[in-house]
Design brief:
Length: about 150
Amino acid sequence: DMMADADPIVRHMWEWHLYEESEHKSIVMDAYREVFGDGLDAYIARMWALPIAVTFLSLVILPAVHRFIQIDSEPSSGAPKEWIKMLKWMFYKPGYFQTMGKRLAAFAKRDFHPWVYSDNSEGLGELRSRVIDESWELPSKSATLA
């Protein structure tokens, strides 16, 4: 809905990014488990890293948002109005941080995996056909070895 009136090229880029992120959202968790396993030590390390990652991302994202607002703000509207819109999005509607508790609680489960928490694989096929050009893809290493 947010992209309904967007430039078609910009909308295509965001749809591609959505597809790409959804397709590989479990890779980090799979790699972590492959390297560290599923034991208590691996779980404790994952929980210890969570506040560090949230803090780091907050420190990186806020300056980026500030820069985007500076670039995109029309002189007549002013950046303060843009910050108010962003804060409403974060805390009121749709309330990004209001739903953060559910996401963190899911991540804190010992058996957490992104595909179990949010399986959107059904819609990926249709999205893939719209945003991926088969000629972009390289054969996998296993296909070239055969």
